[in-house]
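Write out structure tokens for Ribulose-phosphate 3-epimerase.
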Amino acid sequence: MAPIIAPSILAADFANIQKEVEMLNESSADWIHIDIMDGMFVPNISFGMPVLAAIQKHAKKPLDVHLMIEQPERYVETFKKLGADTISVHYEACPHLHRNLQQLRDLDCRVGVALNPHTSVELLADTLQDIDLVCMMSVNPGFGGQKFIEQTYQKVRKLRAMAEAQNTPLHIEIDGGVNSENAPKLIEAGADVLVAGSFVFRAEDPIATIAGLKG
């Protein structure tokens, strides 16, 4: 089965955001990945509600919203109203994770949890039944264009085995440094959602690049 491809709009040309979103609409991309950064949880600021609203206005693909922010419970309802189909909160930003997951479930969106590279997948063992998607960071969060962390393959295999042991369906999403070389290995390890930013938007032919990632 072909993986879900979710190009990261963070790497797009924001002077031509409508054109970039329309390109994704025409491509074989499945979702549009949107990174929200607050400058506190990660050392960078991306964009917030007005930009998400502008993207949603033109997008014909589901919006996969990745919240790299502190206290995400303050904002998830707003992001849902702005069109988020998936909302991922960071494990490291949620000391009461089960409560966060229930809040997302009540919003009737796909429930996601993101993990930083140093965070063990075993920490999700007690909440895996409440999660639809795990966004596994394969670079340190906050900046695009970083080198892929090789330890990711092992983490994917471990998480997929955990999900199978609990007999729960789970999307495993890889975010950071994804390209045509590591994509097949990630899928073989058990990932089924691939986020690609610079690799897509800096390509000579982004539409062909997206098709190539789908295999």
